[in-house]
Design a protein that fits this description.
274 residues; alpha+beta; seven-stranded mixed β-sheet; two-stranded antiparallel ribbon; 10 helices; 9 strands; 39% helix
């Protein structure tokens, strides 16, 4: 009986973690009209949005929305949270000195604080943060978040880049909502600091916050992310865009932001109308 009760407890706990780490897509509105924005750039992809006011979820391409991919640099959201929570990052202004290794992005080849490293998506900065956090502590937080497949095996400074750790767009959406409302297992001040570094545009019409990501899957497809939220008229809408290209040399930067903004405008955002 004791073993049965323990198994039931573990099963119910796993169901609870799944329910809070993703957004239900069972009642989603499927909007295939959004396909044209991916077609225009000759890519596959998906888009999902949650209207927090009424709970309505809009999805294009449900299959990809519930498929897990490497998080790439969207993991900098979680890496920042863990770094700040543990004190490995003392504040968003904490500088890590450049190690002198010249990398492909010249903007990374300098001393840098967390705020700038986040905006420039500096891989080296966050790899050093991960090494300082350590594997066991990182795994503990990943488990508490029920983040994707929770697999961070191998080197602690590359699991989010090499297809060990994977997460679905739907799960990303759930994480974003919990971050926005201080529902993650981190101090509220830490969550606030990460939300602040995610802000990309802030004007009288809207406030747009997001993090990008770019990597390659096991088949060498280019995978691009743009995950975040838009605030208009005191309402928040969470969104995730995933772009997938068979061309491993595909220029992901203009595609992921271009597709996202085109979709947001079609849905009525970024124009002061919402």
């Amino acid at each position: 009986m004791k073993r049965t009760n323990t198994s039931l407890f573990l099963f119910l706990t796993s169901l609870f973690l799944v329910s809070i780490s993703s957004c239900s897509v069972n009642k989603a509105k499927i909007d295939n009209n959004l396909k044209k924005y991916f077609d225009s750039r000759n890519v596959e992809g998906c888009f999902t949005m949650l209207n927090n006011t009424d709970g309505q979820i809009t999805v294009y391409n449900m299959e990809l929305d519930t498929t897990r991919f490497l998080p790439a640099s969207t993991y900098k959201i979680v890496n920042s949270l863990i770094g700040l929570q543990t004190g490995v990052i003392t504040s968003p202004k904490m500088v890590i000195k450049w190690d002198g290794v010249k990398r492909w992005n010249d903007d990374w080849n300098q001393d840098m604080d967390m705020t700038k490293a986040f905006k420039l998506s500096n891989v080296a900065y966050y790899q050093e943060v991960a090494r300082r956090i350590g594997h066991d502590t990182m795994q503990s937080f990943i488990d508490s978040l029920s983040y994707g497949n929770k697999n961070i095996s191998g080197a602690v400074d590359s699991f989010w880049l090499n297809n060990k750790l994977k997460i679905s767009p739907d799960e990303q959406l759930g994480l974003l909502k919990r971050l926005y409302f201080d529902q993650l297992p981190f101090r509220k001040s830490v969550q606030q600091e990460v939300r602040e570094v995610m802000v990309q545009e802030d004007n009288t019409a809207y406030k747009l916050s997001y993090k990008t990501g770019w990597g390659w899957d096991e088949s060498n497809n280019a995978i691009g992310w743009l995950v975040g939220w838009v605030e208009e008229n005191k309402h928040v809408y969470f969104f995730v865009t995933l772009v997938k290209s068979k061309d491993k040399d595909f220029d992901m930067k203009p595609a992921r932001i271009g597709i996202t903004k085109d979709i947001l405008k079609e849905l009525g955002f970024l124009q002061g109308k919402m």
